[in-house]
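PT: before anyone asks, these are the final sequences, not the draft ones from last week. 705 residues across everything. Please model them as a single complex and drop the result in this thread when it's through.
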Amino acid sequence: MVMRGMYKPVGLAALLLAATSLSAPATAWAADTVKVGVLQSLTGTMAISEVTVKNAEILAIEEINAGGGVLGKKIEPVVEDGASDPAIFAQKATKLVQDGGVVTVFGGWTSASRKAMLPVFQKLKSLLWYPVQFEGNECSPNIMYSGAQPNQQILPALQWAVEKGYKSYFLIGSDYVFPRTANLILKKHIDADKLKVAGEEYVPLGGTDFSAVIAKVQAAKPDIIFSTLNGDSNVSFFKQMAAAGLPSAKLPVMSFSIGEQEAVAMGPSLVEGSYAAWNYFQSLDGAANKKFVSAYQAKFGAGAAVTDPMVHGYVDVYAWKAAVEKAGSFDPEKVRAAAVALDYLDTAMGKVKFAANQSLVQTGYIGQLDPTGQFKIIWQSKGTIDPDPYDPLVFPGKKCPAS
Amino acid sequence: MTHWPLIAGQVFNGFSVASLYVLAALGLALSFGLMRVINMAHGEMLMLGGYLAYLTLQVVPGPLGILAAMPVAFLGAAAVGAVLETTLIKRLSARPLDTLLATWGVSLILQQAARNIFGAIGVDVRAPEWLNHAYTVPSGLLEGLTIPATRLFILAVAFAVMGALGLLLARTRIGLLVRAVNQDRGMAAAAGINVRAVDLSVFCLGTGIAGLAGVVLALLGPVTPNVGQSYVVPAFLVVVLGGLGSLKGTAIASLIVGLFSALVQILVDVSLAQVLLLLFVIGFIQFRPQGVVAVRSRALDA
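LR: through. Structure below.
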């Protein structure tokens, strides 16, 4: 893993940058550069995941600069630390946009961080590019949602499971908004498909004891477990499942929060054979992906794992560039209008474009973990899936506000 | 009738969780009982045990690695405890609040050290093959009841540690000295007991047990820089409920907490079970502030 010490100077530099820009008029950027904000957690519990997203965003910015920049200007990233704390995300977003003179911000991971930043971007009429899959049920004109909506990750996983013939589903999640909403959607669709929800259990974030949950799984005898557990709880869950004689080979587990990086950290043999649903896997074919993976590994280490949110962060920067060039302006409102009018972009995750509701049109994939921590892609959606922030069964009649 | 396997399973799980808690809490109870030191870095001793298990498994792979890791983690954590005691806690012994703050600082330092050395995302420690199976009741009233070998192993370790500690305190000269210092520090010192040496050895014993606990916790949980934090809160809970500093109380309180949360979880989910557990402990402390087992010590009267 990357040494954390590295980020101290970067963070300090960012702080100094922001401090100096305080004294300058907010709108005046140097003639040949344009500032963008990169706001991820570089410290705290989310740093594990978000530092690599920051790396991918910076990589894209450097590549674009090496290719001549955007509208003749070099991009100057202003990196801020959200510190795994939604309140700090909101504070740093304000600082970046209001005082730092950035034209847009790439960042956020947890839904809590996004919800905290939303009013800031709405008030300051700026634009946030959000890279992580989430629970939907939100549609702000000031956020570009590139991570999967539930109908692009969770429902494709259900569709795959139904095609495989699984009839009885056990839902396990960490206790916060994403798993609760995801499971609400899953339950409605499982019911609508005349299948069975064998059980639904929540464990506090970071919880380590799964003895009772596993006892309930054993009593309910489901065909498959859908897991929205997040973070270290996954390690405890898989270890205790194996200890109870239920490895993935015996009772399949479909996870929505385990990517290549998490698999390596947990020990690939622990999670081998379990499934995951994403819109990108490192093992995807295609020249664009090969180029991205080798560029990332050249910069951050030969063995560095590449994950779905990282690619979304990377693609966001390129989509912003394309939108800026189409609009011929850095103005957030014009960029937003241009972004949803872009044609398909050929990216590491395949062909994607932003829909009118500012979410990404993308493909859903199911992968199965092999012993090296990579996914074997075993299923993919028929073409790209249009994003739907409001599931029709759960939020009937709810629509994105016309922007 | 199909509920019997679930209920029996939860009773077993209650004992299993209790064994994890008692291992996590014993060291804390020891150092508090004797020295009135609230060691906020106790969780990091558990973490240290996990990482030492990881390192031992690199050197001694194979089925016996985990057994080799236990003495290594015990000695390693005890050594770190010795350094902590002589450099810090000894010097702050008359200032409990400062000790609290200082050991909290140590806890942060150790977490960051682990992050810098091993990376933020944790390392892989797996149960050996001979533990990686479960016993299932094939038929009868408890048909389908599964008992994981790993959990049985941890229960055995917990009993062994408690037994050894009980014998040490009740039957040996060291135990006699510890009990003497615990009852009346001033009088023990006046009688010629080297109170400092007793303090040091008890603190090392406490951190050593935490290190050993870290090894077995790694069989069921993650080994990450902040793993200690997820066990230290229940450990404190158990120590408070048990009667500050009482080893017997710690064991009984672990059992109460383990069984309570396991049995409540038959009806509610984990999140609610935690809420109910905390309410139960608060209620219990209201009626019995001295905990399950009251400790008589001059140190507590002062």
